[in-house]
Specification:
Length: about 230
């Protein structure tokens, strides 16, 4: 764990994983699901580090973790999304750039996906974004402020983030001339999380083939945009 400064000067803790050769390595800020900074999101950061990226996971819940959906819903409900994107996440991008990463992407899952969409417009320092099955209320999305490439992975059978909303979000980005790539998968919500079905929540389902394809596309995208 490390501590970095937000743009407003406040401090926040984060989980940092360095690659084997960290000098000048590109960075990726990883945004948690609504559960918090748990072992699964740490595993994502570790996977990125193995692939050669400096991975930083801000602790948006300030040390709190949810084990059940009601706890997660409560913690997410208490989170100020605008502050998280413009301060916590922007500060994380700034930290990675200040400590050696010339280029930095933001990626996030579920709630983190929604925050990634917001960050694409609120963090001018980011160089790319990768969204995983999550978007904010569309009235809060100002596509005109999104200047860097975005890759997004969506589940066609998502009970939390409807594919109809994805289509509306895509139209906003298209109309604003955003450089985006929306990929849709025959899967349910959280299809890339191996622990999804252990949550005992029917709307969640891990799908290996979709997860592998999404990660393949993600690494190709990161290599292209962070090189």
């Amino acid at each position: 764990m490390i501590t970095y400064q937000r743009p407003d000067g406040k401090s926040i803790d984060a989980y940092l994983v360095e690659p084997a050769n960290p000098e000048h390595a590109p960075g990726v800020v990883v945004i948690q699901e609504w559960w918090g900074l748990d072992d699964e999101i740490k595993r994502v950061a570790e996977t990125l580090a193995v692939a050669g990226y400096r991975a930083l996971v801000p602790d948006l819940y300030r040390g709190k973790l949810a084990l059940e959906a009601k706890e997660a819903e409560h913690l997410m409900g208490d989170l100020d999304f605008g502050d998280a994107a413009s301060q916590d996440i922007r500060g994380a991008v700034q930290y990675l750039k200040a400590t050696g990463s010339a280029k930095v992407a933001v990626t996030g899952f579920c709630m983190g996906g929604a925050l990634t969409v917001l960050s694409a417009g609120k963090v001018p320092e980011l160089d790319a974004s990768v969204v995983w099955y999550g978007y904010p209320p569309l009235e809060y999305v100002d596509a005109s402020t999104m200047k860097k490439p975005m890759l997004a992975h969506w589940a066609l059978h998502d009970d939390f983030f409807s594919i109809a909303g994805v289509d509306q979000l895509e139209e906003k980005l298209r109309s604003a001339g955003v450089d985006y790539d929306f990929q849709r998968y025959d899967a349910k919500h959280a299809f890339a999380n191996p622990k999804s079905e252990k949550r005992n929540m029917p709307p969640l389902q891990y799908k290996l083939a979709a997860a592998e394809l999404a990660w393949e596309r993600t690494f190709d995208f990161l290599k292209k945009n962070l090189a």
